[in-house]
Queue: 2 jobs
Job 1
Amino acid sequence: MSATDDDPTDDLTVTPPKTWATGLPAVTHALGYALGQTTVRRTALTLLTVNQAGGTDCPGCAWPDPGPADRHRNEYCENGAKHIADEATSRRVTRDFFRRHSVAGLGAKSDLWLNQQGRLTEPMVKRPGAGHYEPIGWDEAIGLLATELNALDSPDQALFYTSGRLNNEAAFLLQLLARAYGTNNLPDCSNLCHESSGSALNETLGIGKGSVTLDDIHHSDLVLVVGQNPGTNHPRMLSALEETKRNGGRVIAVNPLPEAGLMRFKHPQKARGILGRGTAIADRFLQIRPGGDLALFQALNRLLLEAEDAAPGTVLDRAFVEEHTTGFDDFAAHARTIGWDDVLAATGLRREEIEDVHREVLASRSVIVCWAMGLTQHKHGVPTIREVVNFLLLRGNIGRPGAGVCPVRGHSNVQGDRTMGIWERMPQPFLDALGREFGFTPPTAHGLDSVDGIRAMLDGRATVFLGVAGNFVRASPDSDATERAMRRCRLTAHISTKLNRSHTVCGDTALILPTLGRSDRDVQAAGEQFVTVENSMSEVHLSRGRLAPASGHLLSEVAIIARLARRTLGDTPRIPWEEFEADYGTVRDRIARVVPGFEDFNTRVAVPGGFRLPNPAGARVFRTPSGRAVFTRNAFTMLRAPAGHLLLQTLRSHDQWNTVPYAMDDRYRGIHHARRVVLVNPADLEALHLADRAEVDLVGVWHDGVERRARNFRVVAYPTPPGSAAAYYPETNVLVPLDSVADISNTPTSKGIVVRLEPASAGG
Ligand code: SF4
């Protein structure tokens, strides 16, 4: 699509879903998209440095790179190439663009259209009562935001939201600004995706991160990929799984949809991937009902316990359980009560399928479980991940080669931002260290996460919203409620590279603060700067942009945050904001003194490939209150939809990066030129008396009496598990009630929404 005033309309065509991922089509699609955005020269300049040691870290996802010696010349995937091209685009959004388009007019445009307009070029303001954004100087813009912050009755009336694109240095400064200002209100996108992983892993293993390395994946006997679609969301994970297979390991995929990337992979950088049939990834595929994973792991755990009963001393790792864990007896007593009828109903699987997996587990010395939002975004997401941990602990599959937990993060530095203190509930030792380093007392009361932040804006407890990167309005659940919340604010401000829906849903005053992208060269007073990020496997490395910035008026995120801090808090010798802006190395020196594991940060990150943070669980050191890994008892839970209803999961298309669609297609699933589609099992269509391609509204069912309706979707017959459906987000976020959240983690339940399909209504 070109950057014109035309918004694409749905023009659905359907082809059979693909049975393999990547290969030559991925290369041609990526290059085609790149060349539609910018010149050959800029494309080459960016792509040749992506994920190279000392180059630009791909902002596409948090999958780790191989060691520097093992990297290809082209160390990126289709999505990474598209994402980098999308940022390096030659298209520009200027002050003239905002003169031509009112805020209301922009609000009527699609997410795809907004993104395709190009890079933001100068700060803009929408003043109270105005219908358009107008230019504003940096000084005035930052002063306006600082004045609003200082006018609040309490610092807790402000929200400082971040998405996982933010680099470590900017993230550290943002949380420092928020806490020095007086609040822990640091909601982030992790609240919306992997919070359940952090909650479960912190409780059971003493660290909210994965325990494995890329080498563990390569050399594992068995990798279970659960509730995850790596072919679209973390494509280079397929290269790692291919390596697992080549080393003799096996892969079991557990997912509601039979995704192409789980079936077969054609490596685009290898001749065998271009010319041959590629590598079969999943040795087994279990098509599970949405939310059935808890029951599956409970059944596997019961089978392991029974196998140990039958042949004592041969199945469980008794020495590990006794030396390193607690809670086994209580867990085991409960696990033995899990009934097969319940398990089969919850999972939709056959008993033999589960027993086959059990036999594979028994035959495997080392097992890894990888997962993503298919596990985390359920009401019982935390218990599900706790049960995964139980499963691994039983056979000592934590803290030895080829074994462990692997929550696969979506955004490139979402894990690093948390390490840097972007969390509304940072532990007291971190707050103490921060206070000691900078000479102030950070607030100790927990702040607001994303869902509670929306509630606070809705009822007027929060009135200033600063979003750093991301697209909060579209990433959040209950779109209508979220938009109402934002519109109630006195001021909304977004530090962004490109236009998105959040800029069109304004408080009384709204600011757009344009910033450098990760591929842009960043020059400050002390010279050219680099930033750092942490991937899904706790490796920290640097990222340096190479391109001339999209406009001479852009500031880096570090610079914007440092200047906002000076204007809000005033200059103090204890926090040298000006020095931080001039030289990011000085920020890293402070991180080294506050955040454990970052000692000698500047020196170690300069080494090609960077360094790995300590991972105590990976060394069988469990920082739980008991000092042991914790077995847990988790109540059996099953998602149900009343007769005539379906369980809906939201998902991304293949041509989409987080909330941003790059095109109207979903190549792997065979959906073309349309996004308002709902995938439904043919048997359900028949039972619901719906024809394939029928036009329907999706109507959410929730007990608060509010009608949540996603209008004008086309039904597509698709092999979803019976009783369930799937549709793209963010279009279907409107159906996720704000109050429908995971227990403990407060993560929206975007993978288990009860809906009914009604004939399409005229509205919307
Ligand atoms: S796997 Fe993720 S980080 Fe790697 S190139 Fe693809 S999108 Fe980028």
Note: The chain has a mean pLDDT of 94.
Job 2
Amino acid sequence: MNTNTQLSGSTLVIGGTGKTGKRVIQGLRKREVQVRLGSRTAELAFDWEDQATWHTALKGIDSVYLTYYPDLAVPKAPSDITEFCKIALHYGVQHIVLLSGRGEPAAQQCEDIVKASGIAWTIIRASWFNQNFSEGAFCDMVVAGVLALPISDVVEPFVDTDDIADVAIEALTVDGHKNKLYEVTGPRLLSFTDIAEELSKGLNRKIEFIPISIDAFKNEMIKQNTPADMIDMLLFLFGEVLDGRNSYLSQGIEDALGRAPKDFSEFVKTL
Ligand SMILES: NC(=O)c1ccc[n+]([C@@H]2O[C@H](COP(=O)([O-])OP(=O)(O)OC[C@H]3O[C@@H](n4cnc5c(N)ncnc54)[C@H](OP(=O)(O)O)[C@@H]3O)[C@@H](O)[C@H]2O)c1
């Protein structure tokens, strides 16, 4: 952990209403950093679909917490990230902290674009979030008590978005994190059966995990009117990324913060 210089200036938090972004905003404000929210609902709206809004959002900004939506693996991400970095450089941005996805070659391509942008960078390469079960795609399943997902016994090092935000805040406010990559995971490898057990224990009610086929999953998402881009992303994640390639732990939280990551059982206590 570095405890040197407090950095100053305005920080744009893209995805600032999302699972990591809102925590980054809270933490930066606590450290009295000037923050600008970057999302479609912000006062100065930022929309990945409208490049004019990127200019408005980046004017007067020194550093950026960059999350891409829906995922760095979508085909247009590399061109959007390339253009975004060019505009950021033009407006004098000095540091980009990029949230990336672990085990996704397309996300790693976007990391390379940020690294080559001419702007100092920090990359937070994250495994699956704990908060997907409380604020994200699987929240309704947890409420209904059935995690019906197209996966079997693969184990994942689920990571907490509080920890990801802490790494981003540290990188944005304290010297020593520029041009570093932190691969962040939780402290334990868990299967979806383990996740259902942990949720059942913590919530004191039965949460069942039922493995289903990818087609059954897709049909259920369509029935629930899930947006098409979200369905595509989930099919990509379950069909490709969750194949065991991420079934190992990394030290990014310890390296950046000098402390252990939060366990899934601690996350469940916050529900
Ligand atoms: N979820 C995971 O387990 C996980 C793991 C590793 C990496 N990641 C990466 O994290 C990133 C965020 O994913 P997430 O699922 O966790 O979402 P999220 O950050 O919880 O929410 C999405 C955010 O993006 C904003 N947004 C949505 N559409 C937008 C648009 N067209 N233009 C500008 N902002 C937009 C939303 O705000 P408004 O609605 O106000 O615009 C919201 O702030 C993705 O790149 C993903 O690959 C996620």
Note: Residues 1-7 have pLDDT under 50 and may be disordered.
